[in-house]
Amino acid sequence: MDAIERLHHDAIVCDLHVDTLQRLAKGESLAGNGGHLDLPRMRRGGLDLQFFAVWVDPVYLPRREGERDRSYERANALIDAFEREMQTHSAAVQPARTAAEARRIVAAGGIAAALGIEGGHAIENDLGKLEALYRRGVRYMGLTWNNSLDWADAAKEETLHGTRHGGLTGFGEQVVRRMNDLGMIVDLSHAAESTFWHVLRVSRAPVMASHSDAWALTPHFRNLKDDQIRALAAHGGIIGINFYCAFLDTTFMQRQMQAEEHLKDQVEAIETAHLYDFPTQCTLARRLLDAEMGPTPVPATRIADHVLHMVQLVGPDHVALGSDFDGTAAVPDDMPDVEHLPLVTRLLHQRGLDDNAIRKILGENVLRFFERVCG
Ligand SMILES: [Zn+2]
């Protein structure tokens, strides 16, 4: 092991966002699976604290008049899968509801696991359900996924079809305030710009973007513009760098968008055929898109590019990791899974960041922020 690997394994490494619960809810195991993340590879990759996203696919929303909303039920099913895996592998991984708990678990040689909702439709417009999810251990909520809600605009919908509410409605403001009261982190990845600025006016606590990159390098609606990065930092927030190639690299993004447009019907057919099976949708759609796009290599150095851009804008105290592993099949060729995380440390070192800055980005920023917002 060389000095860089020692630094990586000695540092506390945190990841703000993976979609592995989609696999665990299908019956796959944290002991080993065909996705990006399992316990043996987390261990080898030096990962210490993982936030698992409770992403509720909008297919659980009522799709026809009179149909029941199953979003909250789905969120709970994903948390059931999380708890089952925590019990099964309790010697290796334990749930953490506070930063202090996470530090204790890691100090004792374990891996800490935490929960965050992705998509505020999970609460079905009901603050009681928000509180119930908090009681089950959820410590952050991404206000929206790609779909705008009755109470908040999403980046994708606002970009493609214009704003619905101009940010938050009155109920949306209540959600943010209740999250502040509970000690639940507001996550603005996927939120529309209107929602982003509205939340910064309303929230009493610092907020984060769990898995978003820099728009100045890759102008995707999921990425953050420089003024947003500065504002998040000024409010004490953090940003997790996303490893999805379409957010990291502009050429990949453009080819991906062209391919998605060209293959719209085929991709939709895959989604319909595997309606409740995101991992399979993801794999099959990727195969189709890759064939259409042709070789479009994105090296892991792009991850360092986005980190360095943010560090140059706001310093090293506000940048973190939010890989999106298992949420996308398109990650850099040399960052194919969690086991390869030590490469991030090596790349940041090569770019001239000192050990202290690297430790902050790998995990100390997340722990400081987690402690400040959730206690
Ligand atoms: Zn996401």
Written overview of the protein:
This protein has 375 residues and is α/β, with parallel strands linked by helices. The chain is built from 17 helices and 9 strands. Zinc ion is lined by residues 118, 190, 211, 327.
Radius of gyration: 19 Å
Shape label: globular
User: SSE order, as H and E?
Assistant: HEHHEHEHEHEHHEHEHEHHHHHEHH
Number of DSSP E strands: 9
What about the largest sheet?
6 strands, parallel
Mean pLDDT level = 97
What hetero molecules are in the model?
zinc ion
Counted by DSSP, the helix tally is 17
Give the assembly state of these chains. single chain
Low-confidence stretches: none
* Secondary-structure-derived class: alpha/beta
Report helical residue fraction: 40-55%
How far apart lie the N and C ends? 36 Å
Keywords:
375 residues, alpha/beta, six-stranded parallel β-sheet, three-stranded parallel β-sheet, 17 helices, 9 strands, 48% helix, 11% strand, binds zinc ion
Short account of what is shown:
Helices cover 48% and strands 11% of the residues. By secondary structure, it is an alpha/beta fold.
Secondary-structure blueprint:
Layout: H1 3-10, E1 14-18, H2 21-24, H3 39-44, E2 49-55, H4 71-88, E3 93-95, H5 99-107, E4 111-118, H6 127-135, E5 138-142, H7 155-161, H8 170-182, E6 185-187, H9 193-202, E7 208-209, H10 226-234, E8 238-241, H11 245-248, H12 250-262, H13 264-273, H14 278-293, H15 301-314, E9 319-321, H16 342-350, H17 355-374
